[in-house]
Design a protein that fits this description.
The protein has 8 helices and 9 strands. It is α/β, with parallel strands linked by helices. It has a 9-stranded mixed beta sheet with strand order 6-5-4-3-2-1-7-8-9, sandwiched between helices. Helix 4 links the parallel strand 2 and strand 3. Helix 7 runs parallel beside helix 8.
Length: 247
């Protein structure tokens, strides 16, 4: 989605959840400084090179979801790309699946993402006002191809195609990259696996916005989006719902 179409919704999210834009700018500047020179060149085009024209499976990390059973896809899905949302990367690797791309703000287990990056996965690292320490720690440790993103106007070196949490941001990215279709696995907006009530409420609020972000993409995007159920069936979004790692 074009930034001008996405920005008004993100402004509502930032006001509701209390994200000062000045902090977002700090994240942008630090990520840009830490990315290697090659990661700041043609960022969106390099993602498109991997996803354009392919059937993209976006993998979230809903409780109990596990890795996507790619072998259950019907005939005709012959050009599959897997995009893992943050902590879903580990489940993919455990099943022998190296994601085509990973979308992460580094708040899940990062070592599996570094491992997948070493094995060829492109990692889209998202910087925001709450993850400066993680950006500092982990960006220099990725050995493979990187792309940077942030929650403001795209620059020559950082992208913003829309999306709020890792899973819906991965879906926006697939749409912006010219995917042939998008299939959501491991998405559940309704359940938060968290015992602390304040944290649970915070995460639930983020997931409500993530759901709204996907609804917005369906209304404005160009790519068919379906939800993949555990019984192997698929349905047009929004009949299924989603959780992945949240901001």
């Amino acid at each position: 989605m074009e930034y001008a179409l996405w920005a008004p919704l993100y402004e509502q999210i930032a006001r509701d959840l209390g994200f000062p834009f000045e902090r977002e700018e700090l994240g942008r500047d630090r990520l840009d400084a830490l990315l290697p020179a090659e990661a700041r060149v043609r960022p969106l085009e390099r993602v498109r090179d991997r996803l354009r024209g392919r059937d993209v499976v976006v993998v979230g990390a809903a409780p109990g979801a596990g890795p996507p059973p790619l072998w259950r896809l019907p005939a005709g899905h012959d050009r599959i790309a897997v995009v893992a949302a943050d902590s879903a990367t580990g489940a993919c690797l455990d099943a022998g699946i190296v994601p085509t791309a990973i979308v992460t703000d580094l708040d899940g287990p990062v070592p599996p993402e570094v491992t997948a990056n070493r094995r060829g996965a492109l990692v889209v690292v998202h910087a925001h006002g709450d993850n400066l320490a993680a950006v500092e720690e982990w960006v220099p440790q990725f050995p493979g191809e990187l792309v940077g993103s942030w929650a403001g106007p795209p620059t020559t070196s950082l992208i913003d195609v829309g999306g709020f949490t890792d899973g819906d941001r991965a879906t926006y990215l697939a749409d912006a990259s010219g995917a042939r279709s998008i299939l959501l696995w491991g998405f559940d907006f309704s359940h938060v696996d968290e015992s602390d009530e304040a944290t649970k409420q915070r995460k639930s609020a983020k997931l409500r916005w993530a759901e709204r972000a996907l609804d917005e993409l369906v209304s404005r995007g160009h790519t068919p989006i379906r939800v993949w159920a555990r019984d192997g069936s698929t349905s047009a979004y929004p009949l299924g719902k989603s959780v992945e790692s949240t901001r």
